[in-house]
Amino acid sequence: MTYDVSTLIEHFVEDVELNYSCSRLGVLPPGQWRGRDALRAHLRRVDVDYEPLDAEVLSVLVEGDNTVVRWISRWRHRATGHIHSMDMAHFLRWRNGLVSEMYEFRDHRCVARGADFLPQSLDDILNPRSPGLSRDEMARRLIAMGSFSCAPDIALFRELCSPDVVCEFVGDRTAVSHAGRHRGIEALINIVRSIEVEFEQLGLAMPEVI
Of 117, 58, 71, 125, which Cα lies nearest the Cα of 93? Predict the structure, then answer.
């Protein structure tokens, strides 16, 4: 957490496997890299654009040679001065006392909150439960919600969305009032209705879902 890069690198094996999720801040594209040199290059790219301010470890899960660390950090973008809060998780596998695999997940614009469901093991996290629906049925439901002639079907949203559904709308909050992450079916419905107030919707067709 001190961001001492030379010391940090020493905790990884030479051929460490690095897996990064997509970052909407553009720090690093999603993908896989291998080796300490790739890790150094990643840290250099971050350091060029962002100044680390502070960090706090929220929880640690240890299971055999697997570890998960969840932490909150704040970074100042050097070019704009904007401060970004990050809710981050690192999944680590160890070999002979050093990290051999790292999976990084990050979420900015975060609001730290306790988990609704606490996984009982690392396998529960890396291998989530089945959605309980076939691919075709998931596509059918999404197409139904996303296709309408004059306005979205609110009743269909209530039928097909979980009461604690999490939805995220991309955009600048100064221009798009509902941009960001929202939780709960009522929050989602309020946003859908607010869009309907501001815009006359002439129809939307969603012919295909991947």
Answer: 125
> Token pair of 168, please?
């995220």
How far apart (Å, rounded) are the C-alpha atoms in residues 100 and 20?
14
pLDDT digits (tens, 9 = 90+) for 38-63: 888 888 877 888 888 888 898 999 99
Asked if residues 55 and 80 have their Cβ atoms less than 8 Å apart, the reply is no
pTM value?
Answer: 0.51
Q: Which domains does the chain have, with CATH numbers?
A: 5-126 (3.10.450.50), 135-198 (no CATH)
CA-based diameter of the chain, in Å? 62
DSSP code, position 129: P
Tell me the C-alpha to C-alpha distance, in Å, between residue 95 and each of 12, 86, 92, 99, 194.
9, 28, 10, 6, 53
